[in-house]
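#help-structures
NK: newbie question, is this the right format to request a structure? protein is Aryl-alcohol oxidase-like protein
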Amino acid sequence: MVTKFPLLFATALSLVQLARSAILTAPEQVAASKQYDFIIVGAGTAGCVIAARLTEDPSVKVLLIEAGVSDNGTQSDTINVPLLAGSGIGTMFDWNYTTTAQAGLNGRLIDYPRGFVLGGSSSINGMIYARGSSEEYDRLANVSGDAAWSWNNLKKYILKNERHTPPWNNRSNVGEYDPRVHGNGPLLTGLTPTVFEADKRVIRMTEDLPNQYPFNLDLNSGNGLGFGWLHTTVGDSARSTSASAYLHPALNSRSNLDLLLHTQVTRLVSTLGNHTFKGVQVAQSATAANYSFTAKKEVILSAGSVGTPHLLMLSGIGPSQQLQSVGIPPILDLPDVGANLQDQSILTLQWAVNGTTLSGFFSDPTAFGAALAQYAVNETGIAAGNTVVNTIGFMRWPNNSPVLTARDPAAGPNSPHFQFSFLETFYPNVGQVAPTTGNWLSVSVVVQSPTSHGSLNITSPSPFVHPTINPAFYTTLFDIRTAIHAIRTLISLLATPAWDGFILEPFLAVAALSTDDEIEAYIRTFADSLKHPTSTAKISKTTDTGGVVGPDLLVKGATGLRIVDASVLPSAVAGFPQAEVYIVAERAADLIKSAWSLT
């Protein structure tokens, strides 16, 4: 073919090739002469934000290293089609961690998914976008000693991150959210395209009993309590992730960002002796060759609440005695690395209902297949938007409850202790079998502000051996009492007039719950992880001897090393952690730019 515009065609082809050349699949593909200002470890929720924001300055060169796979390659529909949310767990897109035996859960081992893919856990999670209460961020400011982390001071980053979008069918969302608290950011969020009878009953309940079950117009407004419509990270008929919203646009338009896939950072390297960590060592397997790269300015850890503390310990940063026990020479003694692990537990209760839910759809392979076929043709229909969980409620113990006399673990009096989500199908707990007939409503119960603290521990100097993960579920009296109280509250809630004629009868296991002992047994038999680990490299004041990072997210006692992910959060969050991590990452990008006088 002969083009009339050879120079223009050659230039365009060159730009396409340059964009493609930024995506590398093996460390030897990185040019030996290539120098980077920043190396980011982990292309997850935070890492993609940092990479995209830093490379807005064309003078900056960034290497982003991801151990996992691409989000738009083989089997990518599993993680991108909204209807299939959760299907990536236990697959090639998952690190496939497992906890230690949980004493509070009858000794059960719990699967512990984390994203092994571009976008990290934002690519495999339940897609819920709930920022939590304003008090959550004010607590972050208080713990860190930096008022810039407070809700009011973070508002510009909140609006910079996210944008409300209409569902695929353009169903009106008027009266279901507050447009004033949503911005014009790259992350797309939205509400359900389909309203079910159960959703109407939730809203009717708030109208009947507004003092007991208040309506919350927008659970992303900073008001942390009440019942309302649930925002999910769905836009333009697909899951919106940190990869789709931040990383891919940057890769497609810039030449100063290199992405290295399928490559694990095995340790941080002290490049100038002492405690300066500006180098990384990488490998693709335990038997593969090692390669090293150096950052001129900083290494930024965004490997998550499991990966970040594990990598710190592999590098000699952490509790010295523990490192010595597995043959790792301690370089920097930071006892809180891997400590203070917090997570939130979840279990569901189910009721047969008089009305249409999605139970029949999910138990009918023909209908399910037809929905996916429709989506494949034009990205419409039930597969194109979140429909399973549309309404949610955040509640707390009464403020004068004796349970709170010792210490209230919530971020403040307007922050929740427990949460209910209303699922339009029979959602079985692990070990339960879903009925194949009838219409069912499930309600999940989450202990939102747990007091149990676990830990993450290294067991081998090999980076390819998983650490031990112990969330220590239900190891405090507060947590089990809160879960029991939440279940009793839920049973009372569904007995209010708004649910008359809809709720028929509980599932057999739920019908058997009467005494506190029976409810506690149900909890310990069926509770699972909500997959919200935090605090394994938590933030603290500059003057505090504890903690892992200071208010600037720089690792204490080290030079050239910063952490930006959920591991720095001081405790389990009042909302869903992906929203808070996005906001933290947006501000962290500005902190880094300011530190190095970048535009």
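mod (FA): yep, format's fine, and the tokens are attached above. The domain at 6-72+243-341+536-595 is CATH 3.50.50.60 (FAD/NAD(P)-binding domain).
NK: thank you!
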